[in-house]
């Protein structure tokens, strides 16, 4: 596969959107916004839109409609055009003055036919036709208030957010999580008259809930479009229950079967359930700077895979926290800056020490090209050293503008190194190594007893101690490493003591984070009470 395959595929898909965006009010959902962010940037879309009266808006029930001077709307959506999504489009059109509406969906028409619950024979007869899109076009004209207005519904495969040439994410499917043994109860409750499932090994597509099966079909539809772009005939392999089902659905997907007959290339696609490596997800490896950036810095609003970089240091404002909200944050995605993108790709694949040296080298070279008075220094890279290089650009607006992408990554490195979590990360790493050694040399009950002294309530904790979330991360790490455990009285006793200690911690927390509320089920209780 070409190194630029994912990026070119996504940019080509966005070209379809850009071609429709001229002088339009554009609504994007979060997943499509993230795809745009990593592939060509919002500036490219604004450039295609043009006109001062048109802008970009977040798609949602509360989105404002278009005024009299905004006759055209483009909706860019990552999901199926049904249910609440279509209702939201209808409501926005109802409070607007649009005469021309374009709806772009990242999900292909075959998946929409699946969502219509048509028999297999009827779906086969409709091959090559797009009745679902055509019916929606008529509805759009009706909702705009005049059947002579113009409406278009089309598919653009906006599946990927290409973070790097060899790494692409799928924001629209971030919530698609592998099945767990506890999910068997839900699956069995949906089939009261059929044989009960005894294990995950017995689960197949026919036993899934309609909602999950439809989500899988949307993913398969998008993956098939990507394979079509690459011109490959894929051979699928899987590890894990949900991966097995997805791989089988892609292999049996009717449009994919026809595509594979004409494909000249070959590709192997490996699906792996994320639950098979929970240790990797919660471990603190310490070798990659990007991992720390994404873990420490605040998330960019509406994004799952990028962060906010405080840019105040490069402005005339004093570097006070209250001024942060006055300056638009920087980020890690630099789709339109070739030099910054090269540095970003290097940071993804190098170790922590080498990554800092790369940041320093790029800053020095950029400063030298701009004839800035830089003082060379060798040895260990420090936050102060990087900051001194970055500050040189502050005094030269032209240089600042030319190297803005590089400076954002440089500031991200500085703020990561200075972050309070940086030292705690090293403590995590050391404790995890100690736990691994203990697990190999003693029983699980002894390991939990080692954990007990560091479980401290809010009133007892210092800044160096582990928070409630940190403790849960350590527990996930321990149990993921150990796997299934045989029944043991000492282990039962140790687990009860840990549970009691955690109960005290949770009860004394002055404010539980959204994650803890979710784990403890408090968000559901709050929603229920507010509904009453």
TrEMBL record:
Keywords: Protein transport, Transport. GO terms for biological process: protein transport; vesicle-mediated transport. InterPro entries: Sec1-like, Sec1-like_sf. The keyword Protein transport applies. It comes from the Eukaryota. Belongs to the STXBP/unc-18/SEC1 family. This is Sec1 family domain containing 2. The lineage of its organism: Eukaryota, Metazoa, Chordata, Craniata, Vertebrata.
